[in-house]
Design brief:
The protein is of the alpha+beta class and 717 residues long. It has 25 helices and 22 strands. Strands 1, 2, 3, 4, 5 and 6 form a six-stranded mixed beta sheet that branches. Strands 8-7-11-9-10 form a five-stranded mixed beta sheet, with helices on one face. The radius of gyration is 32 Å and the shape is globular.
Length: 717
């Protein structure tokens, strides 16, 4: 369903300059044979649009592609009653209007031949080459006969993987969906709603991320009309009402033209109407719309420097709204978008939003990656550019978000998991850039935490992450990162440690969530996945350095048992409890937990009393060396240091720990309360006999008034 079909009575909206208009193609007449020496009239629109962007383009291959498409689709009809060939023609015209190069247009003419006709990929490869064949294969759907309910998610997975190698695959898919949405009124209402929801959740975000605003805005409006018809009609009425009478934007535009002309800056000043969804969002944000909220001023100039010259003149001659200023030229968006955004107060107090960009930036803002032409053609005259250290902008057709998406989809083998995760990932419509300590960068969705940064940088090694430094300060893994932050991830020396379930509360990226979920599923009986092994009574995550620590215990096993603990009863694996981290010569007792393992606690651990209260039978346990000797393999212990806050306290404590030859497995520093600071350290000691000396050394640090063994409550399960 097109915007015109949804609202045929709407008056034309004024605009000072034609934008890319994708709504011109009606039913194409297909009458009789066409001589080989000229293009069929049916693709005359496509040829004209293509030559407007590429004057020297060879149209011969388009002629051959059209002949094959028309002959193979002959006799097929769309549900609207039109000949099927009108669909590939419409898709190709959309891409031609956007400036796509010849290869893309050739593939778009053929994009349904392999799926819906007897034409094979081998025939396409033989007649049009490997490149066109790859694009056609990329957009060809998987059969429901073979995949059942998984056909749709697996088709999108296939397209995304193909897009990772050639972004033009997704360009064709977006244009294909746009034409289908324009003609969706012939479908049953329930099918319209289903297709519109997938378009909203998947295709619109992909169009946004690829920078193809001309497709994205129309798709949004078409989805809006189907899924919220009342809201659409209300917005249509508002826009209709705003078209009559005096337009305050026109007066401001005239003033801006005069100002720039007097300053000697060559610029084109246009009024850019907002599309329906944009007006709807502004209304929801502000409640009552201002007369200037139905459009924005667009100032087009020749060079980048002219953009800043225009900005200077506007801020000098008009009152700027400082909070509205954004510089997307110095810091482009992740979808290639570049512009200066500002707002100025015009006559009578009217506030006008202003976009300032070059003509080239405008083309990219409208067409995104499609405006790049053939991004894979080598330009021998272009200067060689150094490879960026972060890889985010090394290839504009393979942006960082796409690389990350392709990485995590490999782990989401289940179609339902992939489909749900994809939609959640694409719903995160803003990105931030954080810096690593080596100067490289990480691209993350807005709202990402240190957990996400850890998995983005270290992959599965992030399972051993114990904390972070953000802008030089110690931070918990739950800390939400901001654009421009510098983050240093701290990894435990013990690679056997793993994430806590609470990490999922702080993970926003699919890569982090899938990795954490996979580890927890593979270690169902690990203390890190049990209540009491993952955090304290408040549910704060110990392994993430996100509160009082109760880390996974040392599990140096020999023959299925902890190396220095003996338990009575059958041959069951034994492990040291993470809540109290017993070490020789502590008095200990064990309890059988899930999976038949025996967890060994200190006798005074609060968990012991609760286990007995619910009727759990204790299992006798003792250290292997009966006289209290130490285990040659070392031991792990959790200590809590209570202190008064002062500068360098953390450095002095860690120095005291290092002097005692203890390794810090994890560390937590709680926010100061009444000038008191609580530090929690999980340490690996070479010998349990050295524990008393270590605790004395920590107490001797200036400001520390107590050091004790951790006594965190543990769960009974």
């Amino acid at each position: 369903m097109s915007a015109e079909a949804a609202d045929p009575a709407a008056p034309p909206r004024r605009r000072s300059r034609p934008r890319i208009d994708l709504r011109r193609l009606g039913r194409v007449a297909l009458l009789g044979p066409v001589p080989r020496d000229r293009l069929p009239d049916a693709i005359g629109h496509v040829a004209d649009a293509h030559r407007a962007h590429h004057p020297d383009a060879d149209l011969g291959i388009l002629h051959r592609a059209y002949v094959l498409a028309e002959s193979s689709h002959r006799g097929q009809m769309r549900k609207s009653g039109e000949p099927y060939i009108t669909h590939p023609l419409a898709v190709t015209l959309i891409l031609a209007e956007l400036g796509a190069e010849t290869t893309t247009l050739t593939a778009s003419l053929l994009h349904d031949t392999v799926e819906d006709t007897e034409v094979t990929l081998d025939q396409v490869r033989e007649q049009f080459g490997e490149e066109v064949c790859y694009l056609v294969d990329g957009v060809t759907k998987l059969e429901k006969v073979d995949y059942g309910a998984a056909a749709e998610p697996e088709t999108f997975r296939k397209m995304l993987v193909a897009t990772g190698n050639d972004v033009r695959v997704m360009s064709i898919k977006l244009a294909d969906r746009l034409h289908n949405m324009r003609t969706l009124t012939v479908m049953r209402p329930e099918k319209q709603a289903r297709i519109a929801k997938v378009t909203r959740d998947v295709l619109v975000p992909l169009a946004e991320r690829l920078g193809v605003q001309a497709l994205k805005t129309e798709l949004e409006d078409l989805v809006f009309a189907i899924l919220d018809p009342e809201g659409y009609e209300e917005t249509r009425a508002l826009i209709t009402g705003a078209t009559g009478g005096e337009d305050p934007l026109s007066a401001i535009a005239d003033n801006v033209r005069t100002t720039l002309r007097e300053a000697g800056i060559g610029a084109e000043v246009l009024i850019r109407p907002r599309h329906f969804v944009s007006v709807h969002r502004v209304r929801r944000k502000r409640g009552e719309l201002r007369p200037t909220d139905f459009g924005r001023l667009l100032v087009l100039v020749g060079e980048d420097a002219d953009c800043y010259a225009v900005l200077g003149e506007l801020h000098t001659c008009f009152t700027p709204v400082v909070s509205e200023f954004k510089d997307f030229i110095a810091a482009p968006k992740f979808n290639l978008y570049q512009s200066l955004h500002t707002a100025v107060v015009g006559p009578g107090g009217a506030v006008a939003e202003v976009l300032i960009r070059t003509h080239r930036m405008h083309k990219v803002a409208e067409a995104g990656v499609v405006a790049l032409g053939n991004p894979y053609a080598h330009d021998a005259t272009a200067p060689q550019q150094a490879e960026p250290s972060d890889g985010e902008r090394a290839d504009p057709t393979r942006p960082g978000w796409l690389s990350r998406l392709l990485d995590w989809q490999e782990s989401a083998t289940d179609p339902d998991t992939f489909w749900t995760t994809l939609r959640a990932d694409l719903a995160q419509d803003r990105e931030i850039t954080v810096f690593r300590t080596d100067g490289r960068t990480l691209g993350l969705p807005a709202g990402a935490s240190c957990v996400d940064a850890a998995y983005a940088q270290h992959g599965e090694r992030a399972h051993a992450c114990i904390g972070a430094r953000v802008n030089g300060r110690l931070a918990t893994l739950s800390t939400v990162l901001s654009d421009g932050d510098t983050v240093q991830l701290l990894l435990a020396q013990d690679t056997a440690s793993g994430p806590s379930p609470e990490w999922l509360d702080h993970a926003r990226t699919p890569a982090a969530r899938i990795a954490i979920t996979g580890w927890l599923s593979a270690h169902p009986d690990d203390p890190g996945s049990e209540a009491g092994g993952a955090g304290d009574a408040d549910g704060r995550t110990g392994a993430a350095a996100d509160g009082p620590q109760s880390t996974a215990p040392a599990r140096t096993r020999s023959g299925g048992r902890a190396a220095n603990v003996v338990v009575d009863g059958p041959e069951s694996p034994a492990r040291l409890a993470g809540c109290c981290t017993p070490v020789p010569p502590d008095e200990v007792v064990g309890f059988v937990v899930r999976g038949g393992a025996v967890t060994v606690h200190r006798l005074e651990c609060p968990a012991v009393a609760r286990m007995r209260e619910i009727g759990r039978a204790p299992v006798a346990a003792r250290w292997r060396d009966e006289d209290g000797g130490s285990d040659a393999a070392g031991c792990r212990v959790t200590l809590v240091a209570e202190s008064f806050g002062r500068p360098r306290l953390l450095a002095d404590l860690t120095e005291a720990i290092a002097t005692a030859d203890a390794a810090i497995v994890s560390a937590t520093v709680e926010p100061p309360s009444e000038q008191r600071v609580r530090h929690t350290y999980t340490l690996q000691l070479p010998d349990a006999a050295g524990l008393p000396a270590l605790m004395r050394a920590m107490r001797e640090v200036a400001g520390v008034y107590d050091v004790s063994r951790a006594q965190h409550p543990a769960a009974t399960g």
